[in-house]
Amino acid sequence: MKQILLFSAGLDSFPAWHYLGKPPTLYFDSGHYGRKQEIETVRTIAARHEMDLEISNEIDLARRATPQGDLIPFRNVLFAMLATFRADVVWCVGVKGDHTADKSPEAFARMSEMLTAFAGRPIRVDSPFWDMTKSEIVAWFLDAGLPVDDLLSTFSCATPGTALTHCGRCPSCLRRWIALTNNRISTSGHFAAPPWTWDRIRTYYMPAMAAGGYPPHRAEEFHRAMATVGVFPD
């Protein structure tokens, strides 16, 4: 069965490309905020690693983004549907604990069932990392002997545009910092502002975790990373 990886050049999708044996990749230029930096990273990584990459502009979802511009609801459903014109197995990277409406094991199972019915052939939408956290994915990458510099060349930021690319003031940057820090990878100069000093750490994340609003494994990784910079959340 032909497979394809929905590729964003992020801290999850680049390791997934290696983990899955370097399948063909597909990037949807959906017109979202921050696309310029993302596309530049996708092209740079693809060229550096001789990646089989398609950049598609067949769908423009800019008008469907949230007011903040960093989220397009249900985009994975649309991406998976379009990807089935190209392959039978669509890899869309989700990690342990993901539970959004269009990114969870249950959501991908429903997509697979629906697309199989419409396509008239078996379709599988899945992630290789449902049993791994972001920190564990980075650990796998390092254990495989893959270069740290390659990992640091990936892009994970919801509000790009700073001179250093990664703002350090968004959920994507916080998760990136946690995963790198928990694997003892230096992030000096990697973020425009230190993610651990983001005001939402104390106004949102700490209270939410204290109230049990986050899976235990995510809370543990958060606390472990924060401890490395001398912050010990209650």
What can you see in these coordinates?
This protein is of the alpha/beta class and 234 residues long. It has helices at 13-19, 35-48, 75-83, 105-119, 134-143, 148-152, 171-181, 200-210, 216-227, and strands at 3-6, 25-28, 53-56, 89-91, 124-126. The chain has a 5-stranded parallel sheet, sandwiched between helices. α1 (13-19) crosses α5, α5 packs across α7 (171-181) and α7 (171-181) packs across α9. The N and C termini lie far apart (49 Å). 35% of the residues are buried. The mean pLDDT is 91.
Write the layout of secondary structure elements.
Layout (H helix, E strand, L loop, with lengths): L2 E4 L6 H7 L5 E4 L6 H14 L4 E4 L18 H9 L5 E3 L13 H15 L4 E3 L7 H10 L4 H5 L18 H11 L18 H11 L5 H12 L7
Parallel strand pairs: 1-2, 1-4, 2-3, 4-5
Helix pairs in contact: 1-5, 5-7, 7-9
